[in-house]
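Convert to structure. Protein one:
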Amino acid sequence: MNPLEAIRVKLLRNGAKMPVRSTALASGFDVFACIDGPVEVGQHPVVIPTGVAMEVPAGLDAQFRPRSGLARQGVLCTFGTLDADYRGEIMITMYTVAPDIRYTVQPGDRISQLVVTRLAPVDFVEVKELSETARGAGGHGSTGR
């Protein structure tokens, strides 16, 4: 078994919370709003501070993703990548999927999930031709619904 890698976390102000797993086998860590009062979210993107800064080791990929419970209500956050050299506050951009959906974020609410994986070491190689497949260049629904 590999030893755990540490992601260093700095709580920037009162009310900030460490990312936590809701269950032992959850792949994502809940990320919390660190705001002074309620914030209304609608169809236009709203940036919600978390009060947290992190130091992600090189070689790890830390991504912020929508929470399924909020997505079921039509409330999403944008996907975001936390680069290994970023040290500022984590901000989560939230919005709703329809004009009639409004959502109020309260201080301490779970607003996103953080999933951490390993980065694949790759190089990009320019070529004149790519290998052929049955799918070819078909995209955007070409394999079915």
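Protein two, convert as well:
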Amino acid sequence: AMMFEAYVTNLGMYPERGVEVGEYLRFPTTIEEVQDLFSRIGIDGKSYEEYFITDYQSDVLGLSDYLDEYEDIDELNHLAHVLKEVQDNGDIEKYEAALALGQHTGSVRDLINLAPNLDIYSFYPDIADEEGLGRFYAEELHAIEIPEHIANYFDYEAYGRDIAINEGGCFAPGGYVSAAPLGFTEYYHGIEDIPAEHRVFAYPNETPHSILETLKQLKEAPPAPKKEKTGPFYEER
């Protein structure tokens, strides 16, 4: 299953020819797919070695907002494998909620580490506002005893607002998430921790077909328009 895709562009071509030569790469990916894509956009490891990423699209809500132009392809691939595991465990909404909270989201390294730390977040699905949160804490968690005769007059919204403020929580698309103040563990420290089977960066083996040929094709069929980073597309789950 694809977790996200990135529009990979030939960095050297851009200032030189004034065109964006690129295409979407789906993650998780393979060495062969990376080599084929590089070959098609003229990144050969000789004349053109560098790429940058102009757009991300993902079914994981909010993910695109935290990825930038100069991410490492191996690290992105490792992230995609980690996210696939989160999805297989049925925790993707909780992950999205942790993203919305915006802590430990400053880099791909953080995004990778977020996955094994999800158990320190409290996530209550389908709670969309302060009143719902107040009712949930009172009626389901019994965090407060409200005598029956005043239950109808009790201000659940104000109570819920206090909870959210005290916990530093937020309402995400899938529900309410609170920030666990302690216990975030860094399992992944950087590219040296990426398992060999997730490393996919490689230049093409053979010389790619002429980049001028690529440019000719681009004039005939211009690349996909550059999309805004906000508003990722996603299917209804």
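Residues 229-237 have pLDDT under 50 and may be disordered. The two ends are 14 Å apart (CA to CA).
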